[in-house]
Write a structure and sequence with these properties.
Number of domains: 2
Structural class: mainly alpha
Distance between the termini: 43 Å
Number of helices: 8
Shape: globular
Largest sheet: none
CATH architecture of the largest domain: Orthogonal Bundle
CATH class of the largest domain: Mainly Alpha
Helix content: 55-70%
CATH topology of the largest domain: Rna Polymerase Sigma Factor, Chain: A
Strand content: under 5%
Order of helices and strands: HHHHHHHH
């Protein structure tokens, strides 16, 4: 892998500066995914934790198994899941909270009605802009599974936005 225009080194032996240059093109996508999978307040912490994890596991990156972007985004998704598990429930999300009627037509609210796997596929594909292959790498599944999951998610969103409730 080329870290600079004149020096070629493996990721495992990269200096912090070379690693930073290697990750720099992927920071925007990592930030977008972290924002989709965690709160805005946690986004930067999630990305930072993902970069630390990637640095410590850099010897495990295998370009034959996927792109740098997919590898870094998979780590980001894992760190966002960990942050969600650590988070305490917020008072505003307690059962019995009254929602405005117009919120039922909100896409962001409808997305919360998707399964975790469907949300991950929608977030990667539509909000981060990954293609099917990259989404599959992040989700650690086949491309066919991603296509099927996206189709199921679109059907579920259609039902939720039209006010019908169906199986998740």
């Amino acid at each position: 892998m080329t870290m600079t225009s004149t020096v070629t080194v493996s990721l495992a032996s990269a200096t912090p500066e070379q690693f930073g240059a290697w990750t720099a093109p992927h920071l925007r996508a990592m930030s977008l995914l972290a924002a989709r999978l965690s709160s805005d307040a946690e986004r930067d912490d999630v990305v930072q934790e993902a970069l630390i994890r990637a640095w410590t596991k850099r010897a495990q990156f295998d370009p034959q198994r996927g792109t740098p972007s997919a590898w870094l985004l998979a780590i980001t998704a894992d760190q966002a899941r960990r942050a969600r598990r650590r988070r305490r429930p917020l008072l505003g999300f307690l059962p019995g909270r009254v929602r405005p009627i117009d919120e039922e037509l909100d896409l962001a609210h409808a997305i919360t009605g998707l399964s975790g796997r469907q949300r991950m596929a929608v977030d990667c594909f539509y909000f981060v802009g990954l293609d099917v292959a990259e989404t599959a790498a992040v989700m650690r599944c086949s491309q066919g599974t991603v296509k099927s999951t996206l189709s199921d998610a679109r059907n579920r969103l259609r039902m939720l936005l039209e006010g019908r409730d169906g199986p998740a």
